[in-house]
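Predict the holo structure. Ligand: Broken Fe4S4 cluster.
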Amino acid sequence: MKSPEERSFDKVAQKVLKKAEQDKVETVWDRREAMRSCSFGEAGTCCRICTMGPCRINPKDPEGGKGICGATAEVIAMRNLARMVAAGTAAHSDHGRDIAKALRLISLGQLPGYGILDQWKLTELALELEIELNNKPTEKIAEEVSSWALSEFGNQEGELTFLKRAPKPRQEIWHKLGIAPRGIDREVVETLHRTTMGVDQDFESIWLQALRTSLADGWGGSMIATELSDVILRTPQPLRSQVNLGVLEEKLVNILIHGHEPLLSDAIARVAREEEIVKYAREKGASGVNVAGICCTGNEVLMRQGVPIAGNHLHQELAIITGAVEAMVVDVQCVMMSLAEVAKCYHTLIITTSPKAKIPGATHIEFDEHRVMEVAREIVKKAIDNFPNRDTKKVNIPEGKMDLVAGFSHETIKYMLGGFYRASYRPLNDAIIWGRIKGVVGIVGCNNCRIPQDKSIVSMTEELIANDILVVHTGCSAIASAKAGLLIPEAAEKAGKGLREICEAVGIPPVLHMGSCVDNSRILVAGCEMVREGGIGKDISELPIAGVAAEWMSEKAEAIGHYFVASGVNVFLGIPHPISGSPKASKLVYEEAEKMLGAKFYYEEDSAILTSKIIDLINNKREFLQITKKPERVLYDMAMRRELPTE
Ligand code: SF4
Ligand code: MSK
């Protein structure tokens, strides 16, 4: 069995892992270490899509090997990969659909407790969609925007509206390759169809469809989720909060919100502050109610309300093991089934809320958009009622919480750098041209118990900022760096001279938290703005930027990685795609993709080597753009001044 130090880089997690051992509670790490994973599954060459099989192909077979139907290793591996992308796209996009439906209900006055908190963003969106504004009430505009958003899911022809946000050369690449997505649902369905038994049996053709599907996520479902969440709940702005298991409070009723969808969690955070609720908690012996987040529901509510974060993906079981959590309220995605088992050892209630996601052993209180606030109150009261059941002998909240600054939407970055009246990406582009910032890297995605929690994310982030590379984060990566103290302005001390000076002048950390997994779409928009501002490339693929998924595990991360690459962003993986059993499929995604898309995937087990490859890539891009040398500073004498042209 690995030691707590080998399992997690986070010292707070290590303490709770020791408690887990004392309490004899099984964790995700125990199961990982006991698991004898199937090497065919890992290599991507196991096929079970028809009952003539399952078939497995030995990657070492000198003949190449074939399934019973004749399918080759590359077709089997690519079908599996494409299905992962489709599932990830479906997850993000179904989230986007629910937000679009919520906006529709708000516009019809059928979502009590919610309104349009960001009218400016709604107006901007309506203008972009060429919706007539003249004197229309906000509700009418919201109705039209939501109708447009919902129609993007079912489109059969044409292409998704937000693709037009991309630079023209990028759109041309998509058209040339035939991968501009038509409708969000359409691409997911087509991928599932093409990868069923006996349909698309050309691995390159399957990959192109996987790319098209991923674009339907990044420029479709995820982008809709982000934009409309901003409209309803407001566009995030920088705010301070705290992170790690130390945010749990001994004297308060602790409620954790976990999953991805923000609406109910936003309501729970608001309800917990209501006077009547605090009074109710006091009656039960607590001093009040403390709401904290896990994973991306947490990120959503942190970004807009400053709710603290208890941890990232691999913290979900650990949070319960503190013995101090009255309720963990989960919605969808990244919620481990083991939570209900872990909770049995303590008093914690696992409360499922989505009609799409139930867990045996959990209490189900269903989210109903017509009575969100009522449901939120019911949940909070249930957690308060559970406070007297807390066994104080089992409680051990580890010391350890860290300050953080979050809330960097792409709009906020623009304002912070350019000021309200001349908000633009010009200062960022100039800083890149002058070499004070060498480039921008988005480190996104999950934790994965195959490697020590947070270690790759944090070490790569530190190395990159030390090399004057601005790091932007989403999802569980943001939480990892936050726990390591990299999301505070003082972390600028760890940055290189150029990046440090900019952070100090603007008052931002060298590592910016841009939100949840669906908010990776903000990184795409920021890339478009950088191209539009000019001077550092005509397409996203020319920018000195990169994407990283150092500890990824989810199918959603596959979708994100693919839409980054399809959008021209090179993606560096710390966990490989499960396609190693097919040299041809591997060659396509790790090498040949570059010729097609101007970007490709990289995989490297050693995060230090991965980081040096990123730095090399950024330097090569800078060389290509001819921005490697600092412009010489000329001191003008009087004669030279007289030579200067006048207006
Ligand atoms: Fe085997 Fe072909 Fe069926 Fe897959 S589709 S399980 S490779 S027979
Ligand atoms: S929650 S997808 S573990 S980032 Fe978005 Fe974290 Fe990955 Fe889930």
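The CA atoms of residues 243 and 507 lie 20 Å apart. The chain has a mean pLDDT of 95.
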